[in-house]
Amino acid sequence: MTILVTGGAGYIGSHTVLALLREGAEVVVVDNLSNSSRESLDRVQELARRPLEFAELDLRDEPGLRKVFDAHPISGVIHFAGLKAVGESVEFPLRYYDNNIGSSVSLLRVMDDFGVRQLVFSSSATVYGNAASRQLVESMPLAPINPYGQTKAMIEQILRDVAATGPGWQIVLLRYFNPVGADPSGRIGEDPTGTPNNLLPFIAQVAVGRRPELQIFGDDYDTPDGTGIRDYIHVADVADGHLAALRHLPAPGSAEAVNLGTGRGSSVLEVVAAFEQASGRQIPRRVVARRPGDLAAAWADAGLARERFGWQATRTLSDACADAWRWQSANPEGYRSAV
Ligand code: NAD
Ligand code: UFG
Description:
Layout lengths: L1 E5 L4 H12 L3 E6 L6 H11 L4 E4 L5 H10 L4 E4 L6 H6 L1 H21 L4 E7 L10 E2 L10 H17 L6 E7 L1 E3 L18 H9 L6 E4 L11 E2 L1 E3 H13 L6 E7 L5 E2 H12 L5 E4 L10 E2 L2 H7 L7 H14 L9
Parallel strand pairs: 1-2, 1-4, 2-3, 4-5, 5-7, 6-15, 7-12, 8-11, 9-14
Antiparallel strand pairs: 10-13
Helix pairs in contact: 1-2, 1-8, 3-5, 5-6, 7-9, 7-11, 9-11
The structure holds nicotinamide-adenine-dinucleotide and uridine-5'-diphosphate-4-deoxy-4-fluoro-alpha-D-galactose (UFG).
Nicotinamide-adenine-dinucleotide binds next to helix 1, strand 2, helix 5, strand 5 and strand 8.
């Protein structure tokens, strides 16, 4: 089995590549390194004690991508590559539509030409937008509220249309909730460029002394402690979810959306407490205004993933905090700590 992993040098991609190598798969990574570094792939190979193939390439470079398909007997694709910062997508929508949709279309064209029609795509719980309920289920209508979310919903639609063209296509649309944590080795992890947008990496950078305090975006939500609730899922569980999805692809000619979450929500204050416990460090924090566009609470209905893939998350929030702390404390500047 040879799996092409687009965006495989990134946060979720690198953990999934590690899981694939450990399962014995051959892996070809395509990444333009716009939000990642080669160092992550060096460390993945060191952890797996197996090599992988890497092509530094923008997916929109279709001739370049064809060469990759020519050179390797690719049987399936996991498509992580994309831009993912909500705020940036509001400021530069065309950058997001061009990169995320352009690279998906280019990838699909090349896959079709080479007869490779098994695909797992990185979608996001953001496609649900302001849903009527806090527990999000796959059958809900999609209502993304920013350009990043629009690209995910549009790519999902493109993939449904492509799957409907013939019985060859088997496509899974994985809607991730909030991936957090790191490989327990502490060798690979989340390494955001600039100021982290997400809660866990921000807390980790406060704990390691890179930032003075955490700003909590609102404590007047309609939740038990007033702070926002999300479904945090360990990145190693997310990685395992991809392997399970590849093993249980839907019927030929279909594209199916499946949530990857734990089914449980945690508040910002609960995450801070779990991180303090795991790291033994105090996290200075201050409550500030709500962040525009944030939901009060959202978590996954995780039933479909169990039913379709026999998969469920097994790691806890405490595990994720301990692993994130091991990564952050050993690599205070992320992969740049290595040079
Ligand atoms: P990441 O930025 O760490 O990884 C994405 C990778 O794609 C990067 O290595 C980047 O260099 C690469 N890339 C971007 N555009 C490319 C292009 N045109 N050609 C080739 N490579 C390109 O992000 P991540 O957190 O690992 O997320 C992976 C996927 O999961 C993304 O599609 C993201 O939208 C989705 N997702 C992430 C989260 C999350 O919270 N991390 C939640 C839901 C969905
Ligand atoms: N939060 C803070 N302070 C921070 C960062 C976050 O209080 O510095 C709070 C947020 O208000 C929210 C919670 O922590 O209540 C989680 O915020 P994240 O930004 O970590 O996660 P979101 O659920 O808001 O967003 C994430 C991804 C988006 C994706 C969305 C749905 O970042 O790209 O999940 O999948 F769209």
